[in-house]
Amino acid sequence: MSPHWTEQRDALREWLLASLRILIGCDFDGTLAPLASHADEVRLPASTKTILQRLVSQPGVTLAVISGRSLADVQQRLDLAGVLYAGNHGLEMSGSDGTTVLAPGAAAAGPALREVLAELSPVLAHLPGVWIEDKHLTLSVHYRQAAESCHAEVQHLVKSAVQAVAPLVVRPAKRIWEIRPAIDWDKGTALRRFMEQCCVTAGTTAFMGDDASDLDAFRELPGGWTFIVGDGLGSAARVRLHDPSDSAALLDWMATVRTAARFGNAFA
């Protein structure tokens, strides 16, 4: 099990004060916002939004939110200016000029996604609590509200529907099956693009997430700080956080450290 972040305060403080410019990347659901029984019910706590506003106001600190939600959805739920956003596991990103940038080949998978959606919708309709979220560039088959006894059937139906469609892949998440274009692009790719945009290195970048797709972002930071939220993925990251409220506590502490350093002229 990875150590809790409070056990790494000294090393974290040293990292926060070592560079004028740092990038902090975060997943949204389960990391910044608590999970809910239905994806539409997930909300960012007002107290966490205040902390994020305080953090992004710090000179040299950039926040990037990289989510499995669509870009428009995560932007609306966070509703915070001065943040870099990526949706659909990085397949769509906010450009430096405010435009939306799509991953190469992402849009080309559209017809295959529509085909799978048409096939899955009727065969999943008889399963209470199972629903398909169409995010245009990807599909999410949610079964958090479904009975445990039908989980294996959902898996079989999803994989069977996608198996014959070459340009698509299925990846697991927390009570979700993600159907995505079969291209070499993920949250790690998006994080790397944001690092290049901000002119930072892996050593001056951090990322926190709670799900399997966040491991792609961790992969990009062999010398940086990675934080896993919850115990589900064990020691997959350098440091552990208990839950989204613990994520907020860490980000609040980071803002405090940078603020104290700034007024103490540590970056002068």
Describe this structure in a few short sentences.
The protein is of the alpha/beta class and 268 residues long. It has helices at residues 9-18, 46-56, 71-78, 110-124, 151-163, 187-198, 215-219, 244-263; strands at residues 22-26, 61-66, 83-87, 92-94, 100-102, 131-134, 139-142, 168-173, 176-181, 205-209, 225-229, 239-241. The protein is globular and about 60 Å long.
Which helices and strands occur, and which strands form pairs?
Layout lengths: L8 H10 L3 E5 L19 H11 L4 E6 L4 H8 L4 E5 L4 E3 L5 E3 L7 H15 L6 E4 L4 E4 L8 H13 L4 E6 L2 E6 L5 H12 L6 E5 L5 H5 L5 E5 L9 E3 L2 H20 L5
Parallel strand pairs: 1-2, 1-10, 2-3, 10-11, 11-12
Antiparallel strand pairs: 3-4, 4-5, 6-7, 7-9, 8-9
